[in-house]
Amino acid sequence: MAAVDRLAALWVRTAAGVALVVCPIVWWLAGAGMRGGAAAGTTALALAVPTGVAARAVRRVGRELDRQTAAAISRAEEAARSQERERHQRILHDRVLQIMEMLARGDRRFDTGVRGQVAEEAAWLRDLVETGREREPGNLVAELETLARAFALQQLRVEVNTAGLAAAGNPHDRLPRTHVSALVEATREALTNVVKHAGTDVATIRVNHGPHGLVLTIVDAGRGFDGEPAAGTGLRRSIIGRLTEVGGAVLIESAAGEGTSVELRLPIPE
Questions:
Q1: Residue 71 has what pLDDT?
Q2: Helix, coil or strand: residue 116
Q3: Membrane-spanning residues where (predicted)?
């Protein structure tokens, strides 16, 4: 947008400069025409130089506009490619890599439930590979309950409390699919971190509607940590990155021995 504004300003300044040159030319030519043919010829000859200057200025601006337009298009294409790479990296990290790490840890019984989860993830991945699109999420509450059942297979009991949404008139129904997906996948990553690092088998998801939008909080009473959390791929891309892309924000609070709270804040469109 800023590049377009600069181009427009450049064009306006050049057009004004050309007008300052051309308008006197037109005025003099008109006056010379009234005075006679010889005077007109003399005037036209005298004004040939400024006319050439104006023409060269217009050509110069045209070239500059072309150059800046090409540069702006190149930047936009690179930004789009970077965003697509980011999306692919998140997909591989959040779904494929996490499942592989769970299987590699070997601290879960490979019962029917775990095999069912692996089969479900494999079907999800196949659909992504064949269509190039992620499956669109459904209702936020239903997606969170599905997530809780999936983590139960990893021996993490997840309590989902969405009473605050019902009391506010179900505002989550107005969330675009992209926003629902961001919340669900960020929650998935936060719960994965509970399984891997918190040393507890219980977590709680609370969803409320506040004055500034929807607030989803993932809380555990695990070992916690002091200071700032390590900004690994999961936190930086899968949680903070996802919420930032849809206009949200993330607040993480923790203390050693007192558990961790991950708060996801997201404005709800009117």
A1: 81
A2: helix
A3: 7-30, 36-58
Tokens 């050309």 appear where? Answer: 18
Q: Are strands 202-210 and 157-161 parallel, antiparallel or unpaired?
A: parallel
Q: How far is residue 14's CA from residue 54's CA, in Å, rounded to a whole number? A: 9
Ranges of residues in the chain whose predicted pLDDT is under 70: 1-54, 82-130, 132-137, 168, 230-234
- Angle at CA of residue 170, ends 209 and 210, nearest 5°: 10
The pair of structure tokens assigned to 18 is 């050309």
What values do phi and psi take at 158, rounded to 5?
A: -110, 120
- Locate the domains of the chain by residue range: 2-77, 137-270
Count Cα neighbours of 140 within 13 Å in the Cβ-side half-sphere: 30
pLDDT the model gives residue 154 = 81
The first and second tokens of residue 126, run together, are: 């196949």
Say which residues have a Cβ less than 8 Å from residue 220's Cβ, sequence separation at least 6.
194, 198, 200, 202, 203, 204, 259, 260
What length is written for the chain? 270
For residues 232 and 197, is the Cβ–Cβ distance under 8 A?
no
Rounded Cα distance between 239 and 179, Å, is 13
Residue 210's alpha-carbon distances to 24, 108, 136, 165, 217, in angstroms, are: 64, 38, 26, 10, 12
Report the distance separating Cα 263 and Cα 24, nearest Å.
67
Report the distance separating Cα 178 and Cα 135, nearest Å: 11
CA distance 117 to 102: 11
Q: Which CATH class is domain 137-270?
A: alpha beta
Per-residue pLDDT at 186: 94
Which two tokens mark 96? 């494929």
Q: Are 243 and 217 in contact (CB under 8 A)?
A: no
Q: Model confidence over 171-192: pLDDT tens digits?
A: 777 888 889 999 999 999 999 8
